[in-house]
Each structure stands twice: as structure tokens, then as C-alpha cells.
Design goal:
about 475 residues; Rossmann fold; Four Helix Bundle (Hemerythrin (Met), subunit A); 3 domains; four-stranded parallel beta sheet; four-stranded antiparallel beta sheet; 15 strands
């Protein structure tokens, strides 16, 4: 089957057909770097990382853009989140941004989340945001009031097509001053006048100010991906007003479809409540990594479909870690077998057929809107069969073991990011050291230095490595 995705814009499953054959242009709303990233961020960005990995597995060329919000994300009080964070930490705003942006990427690296191809910062794209605002003014979709510029929602009848919310259903804003200067309460800021005490400010045709939150994503997405691109991703909690405003301002400015497919992730909750910095109920990724390996955290986020919510608890993490260990256990055993010498060179067509059938079933699951839970069920069946195979008395041939290892690398590793890379590297180093000792022992035997030869053999045996001398070479195996 061909890849299908649930498009939140049309509210149905659709075949995924890229705008340009063989290429995928994808934009995902990135973090506001005001504090340490929490486990809710992990769920969102692991989900999109897995999509990117799968696209590339299918042979598609992906340009993945994920922004960094470092200005303009306002609280209901009108205060910039970055400024509030900087005041709390008693540092310069850009100092705060650098600290937490670096921390965010450290966390993503630790979780095996690949870096986006482009990570544009809002503060570095103010000219583009000003240009987009000017376009909207010229087209009659925006208006200026006292140095601020607002998008006129009533000038764009399609407003609400993503969230399904009608203008008459919108709540009037909470900030009286802002509500009074706008034509209508539902209008949103494209550019805000900077008061004298506001540190983050730039010159503009309307005086000193700073961009609104929504305009940054429209400006940066269209700059790097074009006026129309394939996929826009983000968390379901941003569908309104952020994503809705993105669509309206971009399509009103350029007269073209903005994003063709909208893929939105479900929230991560704590005791049923969405995890959020604003609510103060968040657990940082760094804290979770102190207790669990990163692959177990990835496995935990895969416990539900990416569009569904998942509830966080320590018990759930422990259970996820056990499940991950069961999944990769056969892989580690295969790795251990492969570093031994003297394995038979026979290949089984039955095993080759089983590997290919499992690969096809995995792809069927992933083609169904990236259904990772279903794909994991396929992989657990595979792991069970591998365990049965390894438990047989007759040794498995090296070609079959290599085929199983390659399968794990391809799907469990490259697509899902669940292989313990450190363990694999450690196994390679162990094998290299053993072979080095075997070579040193062979040299000692040639010199008839039986004391050193026996010492190497006995000390390896004490470590659980048994040497067996043949006519032409020495093989080893674990006890």
C-alpha cells in the first residue's frame, strides 16, 4: 500500500503525494527557548523525527525545517515569554535563548532526534516578517494602529478552516488595552509597538517594535520551503490560534495554499492534564534521562499513535524500558554470536523469506499514517521468532545472523531509533580486543613461549571467553 496520512486540514486519511516527486518539504513548529525542554517536547519531536526517518527510508529527499522561537511569543498579559524568562534568570534575553537553545539540542541529540536541515530563529528573520506584514497591509488584510499592525480576520472568510472555529465563536481577548485598539477582538498582532522598557526591538516602517508570534512561522516556512509546501507539523494544542493564524496570513499574503498536509501530535499529559511550562506541571528531559536510557524514552512515546495523547508516569517509563529491552534482546544476542569465529556459512531460504515478510508487514503498518504501535507489534513477533531460532541446538549460519542484524539496523535502528548504539560499539571493541589477544597468543606459540600462551588462554577463560585451537587457526566463543 502507498503511504497515507491523516490530514487535520481535511479531517481524513489521504494518500501522501509530494508536491515535487521524490522530495518532501516539511515544517514543524519548534520550541520557545525560555526554559529546559520537558518530556512533552520529547513526544512531539520524536514523532516528527520518526516521520523524517521513514520518509528517508522510502528513498525520499527531505528538507526538514524546524524554527526556534526566541521573540514574540506573548503571554495573555502581553509579556514576552523570553523577556520574562530573562528577568527571572537575571540575564540578557539572548543569553537566556542561547542557554536553553543549546540545552534543547543537547536533549534532542541524546534522544536520537536528528537535527533539522534548517533551524531558523525568529529574531534572525525579522526582515522577512516585516515584508510579510507589508504584503498584508497592501492587500487590505491588515491595518496599523499606533505603531502596531493587526491582521483583519474578517477580511479572510476562510479563517477557521483548520480548527473548525467560526469567528463568532471566538472569545474576546483578555487584555483590555489590546482589545480597544483592535477593530475586532479576534484580530491578531503581526507587529507590536515596543514600549520604552521593551528590550527586544527592531526598527520598522511603523516605528520600533517586534513581531507577533504567529507571523514568524509563516515567514520562515515560506522562505525556506516556498509559498506552498508539503507538510506542516506541530502539537495539537497549537491548532488554535497559532496554526490557524499561520494559514490565514500566509494564504492572504501569497494567494496560494500554504501547507498541503497538516500532521498534528497528541499531547503528553501528567495525571490527565497536558504537560506545560505555563501550568508548572512539567518534567524535564534531562531529569528523565538520569533514570532511563534514551531508547526507552523513545519507546514510551511510541506506546500510543502520534495523534493520540499519552499519559506520563514513572511506572509507564519502567514498563516501556522493559518492553524495549525485550525488543532489542535478540539483536544483542545476534551481535554476540557474530563476533565469534567458526560460524557455519550456510544460508536458510526460510529465514530470508521470514525477514522479507516482516519487512513488508512493518512497512504496511508505517504506511498507515505512521502507525508505530502496529509496527512495534510486527517487530515483537519477529523478536520472538529470532529468540526461538537462537535457542535451537544447531548453530545459525553467519549469513542468516547478518541478515537478522541488518534487519534490526534498518528498521529498529534507522527508522525507529531504538537500537542501543553504545552497546553495539562496545561489542565491536570487545571483539577487536579478543582478536588482538588471539594474535598475540599465536605469536607467543610461534616463539614457543608456552607460559604467555597459556596465561592469555586462562585469563580469557576467566572472563568467559573460551579459545579452541584448530589445525590452522583459533576460534573463540563465550562460555
Amino acid at each position: 500500500m502507498a503511504l497515507t496520512v491523516y490530514n487535520s486540514l481535511t479531517r481524513k486519511l489521504e494518500p501522501f503525494v509530494p508536491l515535487v516527486e521524490g522530495r518532501v518539504h516539511m515544517y514543524v513548529c519548534g520550541p520557545t527557548v525560555q526554559d529546559y525542554a520537558h518530556i512533552g517536547h520529547a513526544k512531539t519531536y520524536i514523532s516528527f523525527d520518526t516521520m523524517v526517518r521513514y520518509f528517508r527510508h522510502l528513498g525520499l529527499q527531505v528538507r526538514y525545517v524546524q524554527n526556534i522561537t526566541d521573540v514574540g511569543h506573548l503571554l495573555d498579559t502581553g509579556e514576552d515569554r523570553i523577556l520574562r524568562g530573562a528577568a527571572r534568570a537575571k540575564v540578557e534575553p539572548m543569553e537566556l535563548v542561547e542557554r536553553y537553545m543549546r540545552s534543547y539540542f543537547e536533549d534532542m541529540d541524546a534522544l536520537g532526534v536528528g537535527r533539522p536541515d534548517i533551524s531558523p530563529r525568529a529574531s534572525g528573520h525579522v526582515p522577512e516578517q516585516i515584508e510579510l506584514t507589508q504584503r498584508l497591509l497592501q492587500a487590505g488584510h491588515a491595518y496599523e494602529v499606533k505603531g502596531s499592525v493587526y491582521f483583519d480576520v474578517r477580511s479572510w472568510p476562510q479563517y477557521g478552516k483548520l480548527s473548525g472555529r467560526r469567528i463568532e465563536e471566538q472569545e474576546e481577548g483578555k487584555r483590555v488595552a489590546v482589545r480597544e485598539e483592535k477593530r475586532y477582538p479576534e484580530d491578531f498582532a503581526l507587529w507590536k509597538k515596543a514600549e520604552p522598557e521593551h528590550i527586544l526591538r527592531w526598527p520598522s516602517p511603523w516605528g520600533w517594535g517586534y513581531p507577533g508570534w504567529h507571523v514568524e512561522c509563516s515567514a520562515m516556512a515560506t522562505k525556506y520551503l516556498g509559498e506552498t509546501f508539503d507538510i506542516h507539523g506541530g502539537g495539537i494544542e497549537n491548532i488554535f490560534p497559532h496554526n490557524e493564524c499561520e494559514i490565514a496570513q500566509a494564504e492572504a499574503a501569497f494567494g496560494a495554499t500554504f501547507a498541503r498536509y497538516w500532521l498534528l501530535t497528541g499531547s503528553l499529559t501528567l495525571d490527565g492534564v497536558k504537560m506545560s511550562k505555563s501550568l508548572g506541571n512539567f518534567i524535564t528531559i534531562k531529569d528523565v534521562l538520569k533514570q532511563h536510557p534514551p531508547q526507552a524514552i523513545r519507546f514510551f512515546t511510541f506506546s500510543s499513535h502520534y495523534r493520540s495523547p499519552v499519559d506520563y508516569s514513572e511506572e509507564a517509563l519502567v514498563s516501556a524500558q522493559r518492553g524495549w529491552e525485550r525488543l532489542v534482546g535478540p539483536y544483542l544476542t545476534v551481535r554476540e554470536r557474530l563476533i565469534q569465529s567458526g560460524l557455519p556459512a550456510v544460508r536458510s531460504t526460510a529465514i530470508e523469506g521470514f525477514v522479507n515478510e516482516t519487512r513488508a508487514n512493518f512497512r504496511t503498518a508505517m504506511d498507515d499514517d505512521f502507525n508505530v504501535p502496529a509496527a512495534l507489534a510486527v517487530l515483537f513477533d519477529f523478536a520472538k521468532e529470532v529468540n526461538t531460532l537462537l535457542a535451537r541446538e544447531a548453530p545459525v549460519g553467519r549469513p542468516d545472523l547478518e541478515s537478522i542484524e541488518s534487519f534490526y539496523h534498518e528498521l529498529v535502528g534507522d527508522v525507529l531509533g531504538l537500537l542501543p548504539q553504545a552497546a553495539a560499539a562496545s561489542a565491536d571493541r570487545e571483539a577487536g580486543l579478543i582478536h588482538l589477544l588471539i594474535e598475540l597468543r599465536a605469536e607467543a606459540r610461534q616463539r614457543k613461549d608456552w607460559t604467555l600462551s597459556d596465561s592469555i588462554r586462562d585469563r580469557l577463560a576467566a572472563l568467559g571467553v573460551i579459545l579452541e585451537d584448530g589445525k590452522d587457526d583459533t576460534i573463540w566463543k563465550t562460555a
